[in-house]
Predict the 3D structure of the following.
Amino acid sequence: MYQALYRKYRSKTFDEVVGQEQVTVTLKNEIASGRIGHAFLFTGSRGTGKTTCSRIIAKAVNCPNQKDGNPCGVCELCRGIDEGSVLDVVEIDAASNNGVDDIRQLREEAAFTPSQAKYRVYIIDETHMLSTAAFNALLKILEEPPEHVIFILATTEVHKVPATILSRCQRFDFKRIQPEVIKSHLLSVSRQEEIQLDEDAALLIARLADGGMRDALSLLDVCRSTAAHVSAAVVTQAAGLAMQDCLFDLAAAVLEQNPAKMLEVMETMHQASVDFEKMCTQLIGHYRGLMMAKALKNPEDVVPNLPQDMEKLKEQASHYSLPQILYCLTALQDCLSRMNRTSQPRTELEMALIRMGSPEMDRSAQAIEARLDRLEKALASGLALKAPASQNNQMPDREEAISPQPKEKSVEKQKPVSMDVDLSDIPREKVEPFRPWAQVLEQLSGINRPLCGALADSKAYQLGDLVLIDCESKFFLSLIRSDEQAKKAIHQAFQQACGRDFRMGPFNKEKYAVKEEQKDPMAALLGQMERAGVAVETQ
């Protein structure tokens, strides 16, 4: 019967354990000196050697031919423990045996002396899955076990283990194995198995394994079945990274604000039978890669990509800003959490992609930050910004870049950005002071006090049904352009103070002049007669 590579090449001694020297050296010294603890706690991510080291300890403490802390591996006890035939070494899966009755049975068995070996060893895997009652039942015997009993607890989530248990164990942390170390081991295994494995393919497997040797060997097993010659392309296909180009296309479509292209790429991935939740997860991984490429000098160590894909990732990251990437990651994470609660995951992902390409549709702080960052980049690159004409008293939200290249023909002078209307068609003429402005501000103070405060020193002028606001507060200008509630508040104040609504626009001192108030000659004559003491009655 065929044996999987991760089982066939499981370490038999401490010296064979790869990448965990900080653990194996200490354990060897303890066993060699005879100062063996009664309880060990192994913690770390999956596939890093916790269960393997537990079995090696069980062999080493019982092996009659032990040398320098390592078991001999050939005696009857060592072979029996490897085969699982020695009853004195018990492995318990706490994920399925997590009740208090299971631990009570363990306590009863622990009282008996070993039948074959020197020590009775209990290996409790996935310890964090034990119930509260089971932990309480384990606590007393863990604190004062019989002299012939050793406990080894292994867990991937040490934070779920009670402090009372932790304080009674020797803790060993298993680190993620470095990609270069995994790569060397994979090449060694491939030579022994006569597998043709390329170095770049071995490195890609090592990065995809995320620090776990077992995952790396399992993926090598799959690649070996896929093709006789394991290249980087074979690893890409076996690991499900074949749709990487689609992820780049989606990120490019988001950058270009092209919803049609986004939906086309989504349909392509759907036709390739990519699940929508997996699609969202892969997109999150892609944007994480963009974030790493933006933030780190050498992102290759933390992003599992082919060298050519890494260059494309860096190039695409150069067109994104960090706030844009963080906004997209937030939108995708929210989408993934909602997918589990809806019967239409495709719609959720489509909505998230369109929202990512149009931050102005989102009023969250991250979306506003992404829009401001895009605006700053446009200004820094020397692009002029033009606001589209408004409709139905809508403030312009999106900026449109205009090429700054000079043209041979005469170019019309750039129009000022309008808050509420396109002022290009308004003639150059004098405007009158808008007399009810004080009443408008009084009404506004009860509706939106921060907005009213921003208009404290402002003036307003009237041109037909258009009110031109003269305000130097940058806070007011940013608020009235980006906050829909602020626009509604000032229109409501017009209604309450004047009984009607007005359009709004900015007052440009270079374009408009304020009419001088003309004095009424009859009023001047009446004033002179009144000062002279002449009684005058007007009708």
The chain has four domains: 5-174, 179-238, 244-369, 424-514. The chain is about 50% helix and 10% strand. The domain at 179-238 is CATH 1.10.8.60 (Helicase, Ruva Protein; domain 3).
